[in-house]
Specification:
Mean pLDDT: 78
Strand order of the largest sheet: 4-1-5-8-6-7
Largest sheet: 6 strands, mixed
Radius of gyration: 46 Å
Structural class: alpha/beta
Shape: globular
CATH architecture of the largest domain: 3-Layer(aba) Sandwich
Number of helices: 10
Length: 355
């Protein structure tokens, strides 16, 4: 009886194994399930095989040999099976196979969904990039308004104490590039403040249609006052704006001021009227924008920043770094932006008069 039970259990195992093998191999990625038709011929063949196997098991004459046959067949099916006389482990293995097939299908479904989500994200990103590119390409270009402005950010990281004439053919000498002031509260050197504002002014003017020539764009330069003027003269610029910040022993002094040549300047007196006009517009507009004290326009013939110029020039002192409050203001991004917009507005007004 034990051998008959083994034969019947083995037959059930074979039928189950073939069924699940066909189901699993039918999952080829295009369909989850594929119907398996066990025809009468196939069933008969499997029955005969089962009978033959049962007969072989009977011929062995020992239960140990039958157990070995079950173990070998189990390994051939891909999973070692226990030779339980009642076939309980065979049914358990069949159940596990079914569960594995179900989990495999669920995992496949989840992967498909994940791939779909990822594909959707990639498509959205591509569409956003394309839209941004289209916007950049279609952004209107600001037309050139016909005027070019040169900007010189005063001073540099390393001073140059060598001497040069204060003007063409002059016998009076001054340092090529003296050391600038330092913020009494911030400790920020003048050359950093001037370049920061110069770059903001550059952007502001470009947005208004001007061509801009930057005399320096970094701190690591070695250019004298005369050399900067000559660079501006040769650049094709209509005007030159030189940015500085002032300093005094009296820390209570504050405010902005402009400087230009006198009407009797021995080097470029013909530029006085336009330079004064530009200088006054700049100091008036910036002070009106920032609220700092307006210290007006000063005229001098002893400035290397002015005497070498062949185009109208304004040396604009944005404020006093020696004043704790004004030093703090000059380090503020918003305040710097007001200075830049104020200068740009003054430049607009200057050219609007036909200069």
């Amino acid at each position: 009886m034990s051998r008959m039970k083994k034969g019947n259990g083995l037959l059930r195992f074979l039928v189950s194994a073939v069924f699940f093998a066909l189901v699993l191999t039918g999952c080829n990625g295009t369909r989850k399930y594929e119907a398996v038709d066990l025809s009468s011929e196939t069933a008969s063949e499997m029955s005969e095989n089962g009978a033959d196997l049962a007969a072989e098991s009977t011929d062995t004459g020992s239960s140990g040999s039958g157990d070995a046959d079950v173990q070998v067949l189990g390994e051939a099916a891909g999973e070692p099976l226990s030779a339980d006389p009642e076939g309980g482990d065979v049914a358990s293995e069949s159940s596990e196979l079914a569960e594995a097939a179900s989990e495999s299908e669920e995992l496949s479904s989840e992967m498909s969904e994940a791939e779909s989500v990822e594909a959707a994200r990639e498509a959205a990103a591509a569409a956003y990039t394309a839209a941004a590119s289209d916007d950049a390409e279609t952004a209107p270009e600001i037309p050139f308004n016909g005027h070019t402005v040169a900007i010189d950010a005063g001073h540099q990281a390393k001073a140059n104490t060598s001497k040069e004439p204060i003007g063409p053919s002059s016998t009076t000498m001054k340092a090529k590039m003296p050391e600038g002031a330092v913020g009494t509260s911030s400790g920020v050197p003048e050359y950093e403040v001037t370049l920061t504002v110069a770059k903001k002014l550059e952007k502001e003017l470009i947005n208004r249609g001007y061509h801009v020539v930057m005399i320096r764009t970094s701190h690591d330069v070695n250019m004298s006052s005369a050399e900067r003027s000559v660079a501006a003269n040769k650049s094709g610029a209509d005007i030159l704006i030189r940015l500085h910040a002032d300093s005094m022993d009296n820390s209570s002094v504050y405010g902005a001021l402009s400087t230009c040549m006198t009407a009797q300047n021995p080097y470029n007196a013909s530029l006085h009227d336009k330079s004064y006009n530009l200088s006054k517009k700049i100091v008036d507009t910036v002070c009106g924008t920032t609220g700092t004290k307006n210290r007006g326009v000063q005229e001098t013939d002893s400035s290397s920043d002015i005497n070498w110029c062949e185009i109208p020039v304004c040396v604009f002192e944005m404020g006093f770094l020696s004043n704790p409050d004004e030093d703090t203001w000059l380090q503020d991004d918003g305040y710097q932006g007001k200075i830049a917009s104020g200068i740009a507005g003054a430049v607009d007004a200057y050219f609007a008069e036909g200069n």
